[in-house]
Amino acid sequence: MQNWGEGPSAEDFERKIIDIGQKLKKEFRPSKNLLLVAVAVLAVFVGMSSFYKVDTEETGVILRFGKFTGYSQPGLHFKLPFGIDRVYLVKTGRVFKEEFGFRTVMPGERSTYTKRGLEEESLTLTGDLNVSDVEWIVQFQVTDPYKYVFQLKNPVDTIRDVSEAMVRKVIGNSNVTDVLTTERAMLASLIQQDLQQTLNQYDIGVRVVTVKFQDVTPPDPVKKAFNEVNEAEQQKESMIFQAREQFNREVPRARGEAKKTVEEAEGYAIERINKARGETNRFEALLLEYRKAPEVTRRRIFLETMEEVLPKLEEIYVMDGAGSNLLPLLPMRSESQGGKQ
User: Which 3 state secondary structure label does DSSP give 78?
Assistant: First the structure.
């Protein structure tokens, strides 16, 4: 797919001059007029071979006596005639596309594709010894027209060979699941990097625009089995997702309840400790007062205890000190209730 060319060659103009001379021989006899016509034809030939046109997407590579002298931009240009200057036109403003594993039959709005006879190009062995049917495209642009024309004999074939080698290397280091499902974009980016590095070593003046997988599928004989495996994998992932969802729901709740229980226990412990400290402080204060006046303190404690215990009793009996004589029943409950009888 070389896209360079040059203006009308000297051989073409010589052939035109010979044809014109033969016509003139038939119509005119040798005379000064014939010489003038020959000179005019020669002038026309020189004029036509001295100008060339470079289209918008092209860059002209100029050789003078076979030596590179420079580039020419789009427009009409002058060059030395008779093959002294030769111009090769390279489409540097266009992005070229190479297809692998398929071919576009009718480019345009209603493009159709075919894979017939391209099985060896698309079938690729993965790292886990599975076979995948890979279709991909490589887009590139010419950055150095001189190198693109003269560095290699056929740069497009070189790009295709290197691209195929890079794809088989990268896919050969990956497993079939990554190739067919989740890692396509990452693998395509890695292939593009390796392809660009290799082409830079060849120094052919091209830039890889993109490497993209068109379609990656299992081979037809095993496609049904692979789809079943893929469905099982999806069910597995779904169950894992559900388990993680339940885990995320139950574990925080259990942790919250555990934290609540711990905080309640800590609060209860603090309460009991504070209460115990309060009782201790009260007892120490009471002990201090007891040591100052034991009898008075003992009587006050007895009376306070009786005030707390007697109202809870149903019947009250008062006995003498020996415990033998029963003293008269006192209406203490009625009096304690404010005399309501």
Answer: strand
CA distance 40 to 182: 71
Q: How far apart are CA 173 and CA 183, in angstroms?
A: 12
CA–CA separation, 235 vs 237, rounded Å? 5
| CA 249, 252, 255, 256 torsion-angle sign | negative
Q: Cα–Cα distance between 149 and 61 in angstroms, integer? A: 9
Read off the amino acid at residue 256. G
Render pLDDT for 55-70 as a digit per residue (tens, 0 to 9).
989 999 999 998 999 9
Using CA atoms, how far apart are residues 144 and 140, in angstroms rounded to an integer?
A: 12
Residue 206 CA: distances (Å) to CA of 93, 95, 123, 150:
12, 10, 27, 13
> How far is the C-alpha of 48 from the C-alpha of 65, rounded, in Å?
19
Task: Note the pLDDT tens digit of each residue in 200-216.
Answer: 999 999 999 999 998 88
pTM above 0.85, yes or no: no
